[in-house]
Amino acid sequence: MEQKPKITGGDVLVKALLEENVKYMFGIIGGQFLNMFDAIYQWGREKGIDTVMFRHEQGAAHAADAWARLTNKPGVCFGTVGPGATDLVPGVGAAWSDNIPVIAIVPQVNSKYDDTFTLQGNLDQMALFKPITKYQRSIRDLSKIPDAVHKVFRAATGGRPGPALLEIYEDAFLEEIEEENIEILPKEMYRPFGMPAIDRELIKESLKLLKSAERPLILSGGGVARSEGWNELKEFVEYLQIPVITTVMGIGTLSNASNCLIDSTIQGFGKEVSYQADVVLALGCKFSFTMGHGDEPFFKNSQKLIQVDIDPDIIGRAKPITLGIIGDCKLYLQQMLEEAKKAERVEKREWLESLQDLRAKYKEKFFKKILKDKTPIIPERLVYETMQFMDEDAILVIDGGDIACYTVEQINFHKPRPPLSTLSSICMGHLGTSIPYAIGAKLAKPDKQVITIVGDGSFLFNVQDLETAVRLGLKNIIFVIANNSSWGMIKSCQNKYKSKHFIDVDLPDFNFAKCAEGFGCYGEVVTNANDLKSALEQAKASNKPAILDVKSAQTMSDGTKLMASMGIL
After folding, report:
1. Which CATH entry fits the domain spanning 6-189: 3.40.50.970, 3.30.300.20, 3.90.170.10, 3.30.450.20?
2. How confident is the model at residue 431 (pLDDT cuts 50, 70, 90)?
3. What is the secondary structure of 423-456 as a DSSP string?
4. Domain at 371-566, CATH class
5. Share of the chain above pLDDT 70, in %
6. β-pairing, 24-27 with 450-455?
7. Could you read off the pLDDT of 10-26 as tens digits, one per residue?
8. Strands 304-309 and 395-399: what pairing?
9. Which uninterrupted H or E stretch holds 270?
């Protein structure tokens, strides 16, 4: 009797990932992964899955995070047992903090070496990842691989999304089985894709509260982005003429092409609006520090709050609610619009128009302040020139402390930001995402321009992966570095609050352009604000990953002042 060909655990894992339409796995190769890599080499690439090798696993996890943010599909990263797994932690932690569905896959040493102090062994990887993942699964048998893949994807994408961990012992990778004895279910058979309708009485009560308000305000958060509810949001708010502030995670869910968008976050002008509102509708919003935790003096305690979230644990967690609704933001907005069109139309045009007038004056005053040819270049001018240059549908990556605040401050004063086009590791405040986010973004959206605004300190966290960008042949990807030779946000605080007791905040002058050229990138130093536009054009024309080292002034952003006043720096 002829023996049937067998497949390994590596083949089974790749087959299960293909069923989830995984295109890229971001990571670094390791010995226990050999059968997985062999499966990809022999037949996986033909089926549409491939690996993307990074120079550090942290960068690989960030790239998977960026992929997930832009596609609304889980990103997959991996690292070898022990040190590879520990190196994934910062990237997975940043995704966890922002509720991004990332699947981390790590091997474990062969069971026969349990508790023997073998190379890279004896690390409890399940415990290591538990605080930063929604679900952890460890398997030793090949037959368990399909079910384990099903469950980590279901956990990562279900409810409020987030990372999940899959640990596979080398035993399972090495084991062999006849292919007909393995069943891999289509994803529609093990996780839901629809959302339950919201009780109509709750919809009516929501609408009643908004209509009765003199100064209603909608906060559009990450829940609108993850549910892809931006079209429903635009139609609803424009129908009733209700002003909107987005959170950082919600940037692009309503663009400045709509007259209803007022600001992003409560930094600057948004703070005045959030405090004046009498009824607030929070959509998929956690009331993190970027929204002042929902506290005075950013919001009034007397305000009525309607909070909608897919996760009941978020509702009422930060501040008392008037009405709490568990549900998908997209479906909620659909039902709200349907209900609104059944009743008398009550527009809030007067309140909205007054805010538009104030916003226009604020913007005019703001631009007068920043359009100056100072040397070193002020950060606001750097951001202005970069955003003026960007393609309208460009992917924008924001990485850093003060420069991130400066960027968010004027993000809605330029070309409209499309949904799922702005990347920032906001809740963890994580530095070093610029290069790996940009790589993940370019692979997810190869036809889009990718622009990164980053601080000099942040840029060097994962600078080694410039080589990855060059190796992959990525083009029209530009890193604009605000180089003030310091840890600017902390130096600003030492200057303002510690009598200029500067310690450990000043960095040596560093030529990022020469560093970039060493990796095979385009590099240029910019010292004059009037040269920024031409430098950006040269960077684009280079057809290489491009780095602009912009010598910038050390100043304190309003966002830094705000966070310092809140006691969170």
Report:
1. 3.40.50.970
2. very high
3. EE-TTTT----HHHHHHHHHHHSTTS-EEEEEEH
4. alpha beta
5. 98
6. unpaired
7. 999 999 999 999 999 99
8. unpaired
9. helix 269-276
Question: How many whole angstroms separate alpha carbon 233 and alpha carbon 337?
Answer: 9
Q: Which amino acid is at 12?
A: V
Sign of the four-CA dihedral 121, 127, 130, 131: negative
Q: How far is CA 48 from CA 40, 77, 259, 442, 447, in A?
A: 9, 16, 42, 17, 19
- CATH topology classification for 200-356: Rossmann fold (3.40.50)
Which band of pLDDT confidence, cut at 50, 70 and 90, is reported for residue 315?
Answer: very high
Domain 200-356 and domain 371-566 have a common topology: yes
Average pLDDT, the chain: 92
Q: How far apart are CA 548 and CA 550, in angstroms?
A: 6
pTM to 2 decimal places = 0.95
- 498-509 per-residue burial string, b: 16 or more CB within 10 A, e: under 16: eeeeeeebebee
Summarize pLDDT for 472-487 with one digit per residue, the tens: 999 999 999 999 988 8
Tokens of 327: 């549900």
